[in-house]
Amino acid sequence: MIAQDTLLVQEQAQMVLENCMKGKFSEATAFFDKDFAYRFNADNLAQTWSRVTTQLGQPVAEQKQLIYLEKVDSLLHVYQTIQFEKKELDLKMVFNSTNKIIGWNFTPPSGKFSYKAPSWVKPGQVREQDIQIPTADLRLPGKLTLPSVGTNFPLIILVQGSGPFDMDYTFGPNRVFKDLALSLASLGFAVIRYDKRSLAYMSELMNVLPYLSPYEETVQDVLAAITFGAANEFVDSKNIFVLGHSFGGLMAPEIALKSKQVKGLILLAANAYSIQDGILQQMKYLSKADSTLNKSVIDMEPKVRRVTSKNYADSTDLTLLPMGKGAPYWRYLNDYDQFKAAKDCKVPILLLQGERDYQVTMDEFKIWQTKLTDRPNVTFKSFPQLNHLFMQGTGPSLPSEYEKRSNVSLEVIEEINNWLLRVVD
């Protein structure tokens, strides 16, 4: 789970890029600040795009990945890498505090934003296959990561947090799920990761995305990935595990209840607070370091109260609810008890937590420990120096930390590996 404004900016940046690729420049400028749109209108945008594509050729494929988010004072710089026929360029968009675009231009790709694999994964240890997960009349692009030789591997399916995330679970130059996939495959496991439907089909689903419940947003697609993985020739269908991070960890027990093929759950920074309370706690924490966020906290409080008191209906304006999510989303979560689901699903569970995490805190980890104290086959482990992404750091954690290139900590990989070796048949 990440800050609401960041999610909105990601969605808008992706829609602007997709509209430009489709030649819909008027639609793209709908996200521009009024003053900026006056100086750089749809015709200017079309001319700039035409000039670049004339020189470099057309984009090779649609871009589904936000490469980098950089906070500069009150502005958010968003970089997306576009692979044209002749050359790569970064498209940079600058968003102001009202989430409107005030800058749009191409820049050379910056090496500091690029991904570096964990040092402990050696060349030739793993192989990757492009896959598509069929779900709800959609096909989600993804990757199956495998050890370089062999077959019949235990399978781990990776589940992202809330928001339109890509299969690598990209945060700035960091790729949380790519780290996990490569690391776990190098240790003998198969791993599936895929783009969330809210990213892969953002344009097609734009009008309905706010009204999806967590079932359509997350659970349904994981169940489809389980079915897909179980039928794969390289997978041991008797040993399928679900690894969920943040909101993905919150929903993982629900997934285990709905699929008898799930052998165990790995929950990384799983939410214990309600989603709306967690959002408000994050914003209050961040406002201590940035007083400009105080107004956002004040604006969020009545939205949180509305959801908590269930004072909403299908017709409630989205602007009155947190995260721009509609009634079906909040109704589903109000009826869902992750602790009861974790008790009822019976499968072994591993819960991991970074002690420097400000998005899902140690207080929430302790709630999980209390709620599942009598539940057998549950293992808890926290890591003093790790943040929400399970990466190393020191001092109070802030969003700027995610902009520094790092990898998921080796101690997390080892903890997951050791637990899996104990529970795999």
Secondary-structure blueprint of this entry?
Elements: H1 4-21, H2 25-28, H3 34-39, H4 42-56, E1 68-72, E2 75-83, E3 88-95, E4 101-107, E5 126-135, E6 138-147, E7 153-159, E8 170-171, E9 174-175, H5 176-186, E10 190-194, H6 197-200, H7 214-230, E11 235-245, H8 247-258, E12 262-268, H9 275-289, H10 294-308, H11 327-335, H12 338-344, E13 349-354, H13 362-371, E14 378-383, H14 410-423
Parallel strand pairs: 7-10, 7-11, 11-12, 12-13, 13-14
Antiparallel strand pairs: 1-2, 2-3, 3-4, 5-6, 6-10, 8-9
Helix pairs in contact: 7-8, 8-12, 9-10
Feature tags:
Nuclear Transport Factor 2, Chain: A, 14 helices, alpha/beta, about 425 residues, four-stranded antiparallel beta sheet, Rossmann fold, globular, eight-stranded mixed beta sheet, 14 strands, about 20% strand, 2 domains
Which strands sit side by side, in order, in the main sheet?
A: 5-6-10-7-11-12-13-14
Query: Spans with pLDDT under 50 lasting ≥5 residues?
Result: none
Could you tell me the number of beta strands? 14
Structural class comes to alpha/beta
CATH T-level fold name of the largest domain? Rossmann fold
- Mean pLDDT across all residues, rounded? 91
Structure description:
The protein is built from 14 helices and 14 strands. An eight-stranded mixed sheet has the order 5-6-10-7-11-12-13-14, with helices on both faces. It has a four-stranded antiparallel sheet with strand order 1-2-3-4. The protein has a two-stranded antiparallel ribbon with strand order 8-9. The chain has two domains: 107 residues, Nuclear Transport Factor 2, Chain: A; 267 residues, 3-Layer(aba) Sandwich (Rossmann fold). Helix 8 crosses helix 12. The chain has 425 residues and is of the alpha/beta class. 43% of the residues are buried.
